[in-house]
Structures
1.
Amino acid sequence: MCTMMRKTDPVETNIDLGDTDDEDLDADLYEEHEEPQLLWKAELGDRMDEVEAVSPLVDLSDIKPLLNERDPRGVNKCLKVSFEDVIAEPASVRSGDRVWIWSNALFEVTRVWIYRIVTVLLAVPVSIITGLIFAILSFLHIWFFSPFVHHILIITYWLQSLWSIVLDIGVRPFLTSAAKCYDGIRLRLTLE
């Protein structure tokens, strides 16, 4: 049933930063289905802010893991830096407590916000460039390098056969006899 909202009614806004698991949302959306449940935007209703859809058809199994875990393989473990990892005062030389607290706060705020600003400005262009590079490399590998290698292997099949014969006739008997000669040697190490 649809109800009209007056303009004077306060609107409650909830912001999900992805730092907590929303078990009720997961239970409502997946409801014991083996396959991921696909929802239309109109069916999401009040939960539209929590699940940002790129297309009208949303696969929730793809979106939820990206919000919670953005580095699942630990590629950037070296970038988990806190203030104490960068700046540390020994016991003999110390600044005032308020200076230390404000320095810590400013460090964290600056680190977070500069990263956010730079990602807003550069994340999309860098992702497009890297996507183009990987697409070009994939194209070259699939359509040029791999067929070229197979072509060379087909052309040089006679050379491979000749090399196999040379190894079987000339090298293998020599190495086999040398292995049998050295097979009887035993080394025993003792401590005296």
Note: The longest strand covers residues 38-40.
2.
Amino acid sequence: MSDNAKAKGRKGSILIPLLLVVTLAACSVAGYAVWRMMNKTDGHAAPAKVEPPAAPVFFALDTFTVNLVNADNDPDRVLYVGFTLRLPDEATRLRMNDYLPEVRSRLLLLLSRQDALKLATEPGKQALVEEIKQALAPPLVKGQPAQVVSDVLFTAFILR
């Protein structure tokens, strides 16, 4: 055999194992990359299980019908309004239910002082919501905590 044939045979015998090693390394790197992407945690621990928020506590009140203050002293200006209070907890709802006549009295006094022209606008209604929260905030009797009203939701609102 010639030297050329021997060199060619040696080259072929070295080339095959070299390609095999390179292919094996490439497959290993690709497999590791896929495994890392599938098990990626972004350096954060597993998120803690988030508790769902507590169910809202609502306190529905009967509708109110009151005469309104107006510039003309027209006795026919009437507000018919119904609303539901959103409360922070069941204890507040029970306390308001126990003292319902006191709650309704505060609200009737507040509603009867309202101006018809102001209530006809959106800002006037929003101001009424804040006034209702403030009217119900003081304790109903001495020794009790202040009431917290999270929101006032209108269920009926007729201004005549």
Note: The helical segments are 3-38, 90-98, 100-112, 116-119, 122-136.
3.
Amino acid sequence: MEVFKRKPKEVDNNAITPFWNVVLNIVIGIFAFTCVFPFLFVIAISFTDEKVLALNGFSLIPEKFSMAAYHFIFNTGDQLFRSFGVTLLVTVLGTLISLFLITTYAYVLSRRSFRYRNFFSFFAFFTMLFSGGMVPNYIIATQFLHLYNTIWALILPIAMNAFFILVMRTFFQTSVPDALIEAAKIDGSGEFRTFLQIVLPISLPGIATIGLFCTLGYWNDWFNALLYIDDASLVPLQAMLMRIQNNMEFVIQNSMQMGSSFEIAATLPTETVRMAMVVLATLPIALAYPFFQKYFVKGLTVGSLKE
């Protein structure tokens, strides 16, 4: 008697895959829209007339288009462009210095032949848990390093980041084979030459990821300017926009005490100016992100798959 075996039912993967691709694309599209929508909403408010905004509230489509908020900010004269130039200089120079310090420190920690790597790893990790505080940092920066009212006061205090050092150390350990470095040594290459010509070119994803975080940190920094900068020619963009907002609020509060709040409220675009400040502070760095995206995504996923 023959025994017939039932053939297992075949699953048509070609029919399932497009369906789930559509579902995942819809979910990701909705998530992306929820991330972009607030910024689009801020842009729309910044171009809305202040009086219409006070009467009808916020709207995604401006009921009455107005550039008053941007005119109010740009009426500060050349200070805005000077502050933008300071921020651009600090961001570019600070990012390069940070990448040099972080990558060299992390590369040394990733080398097993370095005798004191455990000590310096613990030294970097310890600074993540404990810090001297704001007052000792201020004393060191102003009294010992004499950074007050200098461009270096906006760069050096945040040039080193222990978390980024540990991330790059792990990246070097997992992505740079020891055999490659040993082969370079056999060919007569020194440590510094090996680091520049071999390690760095194959570590671009990790460097771009850390570089993006450093760029965001320098671009958004305003606290160091509040502590160390009094010279108007050295005020960065974020600190300058904050000073405009504080001055505007100061004028409104004083006018309310003098009984002229309605005249001041009618001439100062308060809400739209705040939104315009967000646009001016966020849009340049948002436009720069696509240039880092390829390396950024690769840097985040490195180590998750092994060939």
Note: Residues 303-307 have pLDDT under 50 and may be disordered.
